[in-house]
């Protein structure tokens, strides 16, 4: 394996180019994004080989990993650097299954319920993008109206994890304490998140909604 080839960088690439390429490739290939575990591990191995100096570059410019042992990365080792893994669930499906939003095993039940990808799943969120942007990047149409903190259309319930939410005065303090967040304003600050989205019809949020035309 030519680690530079796997990451798509020149053999004389500097550390920050290698690191940037690694982050891009590993995000594309991550199993949470639909990539294969093999491709994901190959990228991790390539990066580890370069970082640890376990690469031999031949005169013709080709390179080969000399790592004696390869990392045994697995899907459960956590999200790639600079990202968070968000497990999401559509509030709309809860009543169909007799689930309550505060059920302790809500996400476990959802993971065993054979739901559609738009209803339940996991996706990677870049630390610099909002939860709403990440969902849209993955092709999902999560609700929103203003995209600026002036309504509750994009509200989600954060069950696990930490996010940083830009200033908004629309949510009453009690709701923030209960875990309600605005997905258009939140960026991940922990590796793992659990989010119930589409909670705009919860009591107290319904009246904060705007007409849902997109502007
Ligand atoms: S869409 Fe209005 S606050 Fe997020």
From TrEMBL:
Positions of the UniProt region annotated as Disordered: 59-83
InterPro entries: 2Fe-2S_ferredoxin-like_sf (IPR036010), 2Fe-2S_ferredoxin-type (IPR001041), 2Fe2S_fd_BS (IPR006058), 2Fe2S_Ferredoxin (IPR053441), Beta-grasp_dom_sf (IPR012675), DnaJ_domain (IPR001623), J_dom_sf (IPR036869)
Record's protein name: Ferredoxin Fer
PANTHER family, per the entry: FERREDOXIN, FERREDOXIN-2, CHLOROPLASTIC
CDD domains found in the cross-reference section: DnaJ, fer2
UniProt feature, compositional bias: Low complexity: 63-74
Keyword Metal-binding: yes
């Amino acid at each position: 394996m030519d680690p530079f080839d796997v990451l798509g960088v020149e053999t004389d690439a500097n550390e920050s180019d290698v690191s940037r390429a690694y982050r891009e490739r590993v995000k594309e290939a991550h199993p949470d994004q639909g990539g294969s575990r093999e491709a994901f591990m190959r990228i991790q191995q390539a990066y580890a080989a370069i970082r640890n100096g376990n690469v031999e570059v031949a005169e013709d410019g080709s390179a080969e990993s000399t790592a004696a042992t390869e990392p045994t990365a697995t899907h459960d080792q956590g999200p790639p650097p600079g990202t968070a893994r968000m497990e999401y669930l559509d509030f709309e499906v809860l009543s169909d299954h007799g689930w309550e939003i505060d059920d302790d095993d809500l996400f476990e039940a959802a993971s065993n319920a054979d739901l559609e990808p738009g209803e339940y799943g996991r996706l990677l969120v870049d630390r610099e993008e909002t939860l709403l942007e990440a969902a849209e990047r993955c092709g999902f149409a999560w609700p929103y109206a203003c995209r600026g903190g002036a309504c509750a259309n994009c509200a989600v319930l954060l069950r696990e994890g930490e996010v940083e939410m830009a200033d908004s005065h629309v949510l009453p303090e009690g709701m923030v304490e209960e875990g309600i967040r605005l997905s258009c304003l939140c960026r991940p600050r922990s590796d793992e998140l659990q989010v119930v989205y589409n909670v705009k019809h919860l009591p107290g949020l319904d009246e904060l909604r705007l007409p849902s035309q997109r502007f």
